[in-house]
Specification:
about 270 residues; alpha/beta; Metallo-beta-lactamase, Chain A; eight-stranded mixed β-sheet; six-stranded mixed β-sheet; 7 helices; 14 strands; globular; binds fe (ii) ion; Metallo-B-lactamas; ODP_dom; RibonucZ/Hydroxyglut_hydro; MBL fold metallo-hydrolase
Length: about 270
């Protein structure tokens, strides 16, 4: 895969569909970039895909759900791989209201403000009823933007973890269990060192407490923006994540490495 690509939606749970895409990361593999449709009584979209795939995302999403039925958008944070179709959706899904945070609204206002009458502010620890179930906002144990909120869904017992628990991969799959465990561990640890480099400076007891907070939820499925759907794997993934503070810090390619990459590309 040499460019960002949408993939076919698939089922993560009876009431949850994944709207997946992938993004190639030179030298490191591919990274899933997922949005999710949660078929609550008041349907919820979680994130809106990558900016580069806006048209493809809107088409794929429209095949999954009638945009007129969408009531909520849970925006985990304002990074370009999560807000790709945000304003298109505000235009084309008239009942949609954006669950987000004060900080995310502020960041969006720096380049494309959100209409305040379409916003619903929810902080970590607070809950929102969406018809038949309750969504409780959670600050995930790792994140790359301070406005990040994931959540726990009481209906599906799913933990939506935003960027946390993502993994670099070599090939697209639909379920994290399809990835060989050592490969998954390696890809998760690598991605987490890239995405949350501050993990190397964390107080271990506090980080363990954050991991235990997720463990205590006993999520049946973990839905990261950057991992195929992971059923019955929460303990395993959290054990992998616990290893990240002691892992080798990520250092990106420098200029000589970039020139070597470009020369390699040109030689093909
Ligand atoms: Fe992010
Ligand atoms: Fe992300």
């Amino acid at each position: 895969m040499d460019k960002p690509t949408m993939f076919q939606p698939y089922q993560a749970a009876p009431d949850i569909e994944v709207v997946p895409s992938y993004f190639p990361v030179p030298g490191l593999g591919i990274l899933p970039i997922n949005a999710f449709v949660l078929r609550a009584a008041e349907p919820v979209l979680v994130d809106t895909g990558q900016v580069l795939l806006c048209d493809e995302f809107m088409k794929t999403l429209s095949d999954v759900i009638d945009l007129a039925d969408l009531r909520w958008l849970w925006l985990t944070h304002a990074d370009p791989d999560h807000i790709g179709s945000l304003h298109r959706l505000l235009d084309e899904a008239p009942r949609l209201r954006v669950i987000t945070t004060f900080l995310a609204v502020g960041k969006m206002s720096l380049f494309r403000p959100l209409p305040m009458d379409r916003v619903y502010l929810l902080n970590p620890g607070q809950s929102l009823r969406v018809g038949d179930r309750t969504l409780t906002a959670i600050r995930p144990p790792t994140y790359d933007a301070p406005e990040t909120t994931g959540f726990y869904d009481s209906g599906s017992c799913a933990f939506f973890s935003a960027d946390c628990l993502g993994a670099l991969m070599s090939d697209p799959v639909e379920y994290a269990a399809e990835i060989e465990p050592a490969h998954l561990r390696q890809g998760l640890v690598k991605w987490m060192t890239v995405d949350s480099p501050w993990l190397h400076m964390t107080d271990n007891a506090r980080f363990t407490a954050a991991l235990n907070h997720v463990r205590e939820l006993k999520p049946k499925v973990v839905l990261s923006a950057h991992l195929p759907a992971a059923q019955g794997m929460a303990e395993t993934l959290l054990d992998y994540l616990a290893a990240v503070p002691a892992a080798e810090p990520f250092v990106g390619p420098d200029q000589p490495a970039l020139e070597a990459m470009l020369a390699g590309t040109a030689a093909k």
